[in-house]
Amino acid sequence: MPADARFAATPEPPYWVVIFTSRRTGEDAEGYARMAAAMEALAQGQPGYLGLESVRDAEGVGVTLSYWASEQAIHDWKRVAAHAEAQRLGHERWYTDFVLRVARVERDYTLATSARAGL
Description:
alpha+beta, Alpha-Beta Plaits, 4-stranded antiparallel beta sheet, globular
Protein backbone atom coordinates (compact mmCIF):
# COMPACT_ATOMS: atom_id res chain seq x y z
CA MET A 1 0.00 0.00 0.00
CA PRO A 2 1.11 3.63 -0.38
CA ALA A 3 3.59 4.99 2.14
CA ASP A 4 1.39 8.03 2.84
CA ALA A 5 -0.28 7.46 6.24
CA ARG A 6 -3.38 9.33 4.98
CA PHE A 7 -4.11 6.32 2.74
CA ALA A 8 -5.81 3.44 4.54
CA ALA A 9 -3.77 0.24 4.64
CA THR A 10 -6.36 -2.25 3.43
CA PRO A 11 -5.95 -6.01 2.99
CA GLU A 12 -6.28 -7.88 -0.26
CA PRO A 13 -9.88 -7.67 -1.53
CA PRO A 14 -12.62 -8.39 -1.01
CA TYR A 15 -13.50 -5.94 1.74
CA TRP A 16 -16.18 -3.27 2.15
CA VAL A 17 -16.24 0.52 1.96
CA VAL A 18 -18.71 3.07 3.31
CA ILE A 19 -18.55 6.23 1.19
CA PHE A 20 -19.94 9.28 2.99
CA THR A 21 -20.18 12.43 0.86
CA SER A 22 -21.39 15.49 2.76
CA ARG A 23 -21.76 19.24 2.77
CA ARG A 24 -21.08 20.93 6.13
CA THR A 25 -23.21 23.75 7.51
CA GLY A 26 -20.18 25.73 8.68
CA GLU A 27 -21.67 25.87 12.19
CA ASP A 28 -19.99 24.50 15.32
CA ALA A 29 -16.70 23.63 13.60
CA GLU A 30 -15.05 22.90 16.95
CA GLY A 31 -17.80 20.50 18.05
CA TYR A 32 -17.72 18.79 14.68
CA ALA A 33 -13.93 18.34 14.83
CA ARG A 34 -14.15 16.86 18.34
CA MET A 35 -16.89 14.44 17.32
CA ALA A 36 -15.08 13.40 14.12
CA ALA A 37 -11.92 12.62 16.11
CA ALA A 38 -13.92 10.71 18.73
CA MET A 39 -15.72 8.67 16.04
CA GLU A 40 -12.45 7.83 14.31
CA ALA A 41 -10.94 6.65 17.60
CA LEU A 42 -14.05 4.63 18.45
CA ALA A 43 -14.22 3.04 14.99
CA GLN A 44 -10.59 1.93 15.27
CA GLY A 45 -11.61 -0.32 18.15
CA GLN A 46 -14.54 -1.91 16.34
CA PRO A 47 -14.23 -5.48 15.07
CA GLY A 48 -13.74 -5.48 11.32
CA TYR A 49 -12.56 -1.86 11.02
CA LEU A 50 -9.76 -1.54 8.45
CA GLY A 51 -9.11 2.17 8.01
CA LEU A 52 -10.30 5.63 7.03
CA GLU A 53 -9.58 8.25 4.37
CA SER A 54 -11.18 11.69 4.45
CA VAL A 55 -10.95 15.00 2.58
CA ARG A 56 -12.95 18.24 2.64
CA ASP A 57 -12.76 21.24 0.33
CA ALA A 58 -12.93 24.94 1.23
CA GLU A 59 -16.65 25.03 0.43
CA GLY A 60 -17.44 22.34 3.00
CA VAL A 61 -17.95 19.36 0.68
CA GLY A 62 -16.21 16.28 1.99
CA VAL A 63 -15.79 12.61 1.23
CA THR A 64 -14.97 10.07 3.92
CA LEU A 65 -14.27 6.45 3.10
CA SER A 66 -14.27 3.92 5.92
CA TYR A 67 -13.10 0.42 5.14
CA TRP A 68 -14.51 -2.70 6.79
CA ALA A 69 -13.79 -6.43 6.66
CA SER A 70 -17.45 -7.37 6.22
CA GLU A 71 -20.92 -6.02 5.68
CA GLN A 72 -21.79 -7.30 9.17
CA ALA A 73 -19.03 -5.12 10.66
CA ILE A 74 -20.63 -2.08 8.98
CA HIS A 75 -24.03 -3.07 10.33
CA ASP A 76 -22.59 -3.44 13.85
CA TRP A 77 -20.84 -0.04 13.66
CA LYS A 78 -24.11 1.63 12.69
CA ARG A 79 -25.64 0.27 15.91
CA VAL A 80 -22.96 1.69 18.28
CA ALA A 81 -24.76 4.18 20.56
CA ALA A 82 -22.09 6.91 20.37
CA HIS A 83 -22.10 6.65 16.58
CA ALA A 84 -25.89 6.95 16.53
CA GLU A 85 -25.59 10.13 18.63
CA ALA A 86 -23.01 11.54 16.19
CA GLN A 87 -25.42 10.81 13.34
CA ARG A 88 -28.24 12.60 15.17
CA LEU A 89 -26.05 15.68 15.72
CA GLY A 90 -24.96 15.56 12.08
CA HIS A 91 -28.59 15.72 10.96
CA GLU A 92 -29.37 18.54 13.40
CA ARG A 93 -26.23 20.71 13.24
CA TRP A 94 -23.42 19.78 10.93
CA TYR A 95 -24.71 18.76 7.49
CA THR A 96 -26.85 20.51 4.92
CA ASP A 97 -26.86 17.35 2.81
CA PHE A 98 -25.19 13.99 2.51
CA VAL A 99 -25.15 10.73 0.57
CA LEU A 100 -24.00 7.44 2.07
CA ARG A 101 -23.05 4.51 -0.15
CA VAL A 102 -21.90 1.01 0.79
CA ALA A 103 -19.94 -1.13 -1.65
CA ARG A 104 -17.87 -4.28 -1.78
CA VAL A 105 -14.33 -3.72 -3.06
CA GLU A 106 -13.40 -6.49 -5.50
CA ARG A 107 -10.08 -5.11 -6.77
CA ASP A 108 -7.60 -2.46 -5.74
CA TYR A 109 -4.41 -1.10 -7.26
CA THR A 110 -1.63 1.24 -6.25
CA LEU A 111 0.82 3.18 -8.36
CA ALA A 112 3.33 0.40 -7.73
CA THR A 113 0.95 -2.43 -8.68
CA SER A 114 -1.04 -0.85 -11.52
CA ALA A 115 1.39 -1.89 -14.27
CA ARG A 116 1.19 -5.52 -13.16
CA ALA A 117 -2.61 -5.21 -13.22
CA GLY A 118 -2.46 -4.08 -16.86
CA LEU A 119 -3.45 -0.47 -16.21
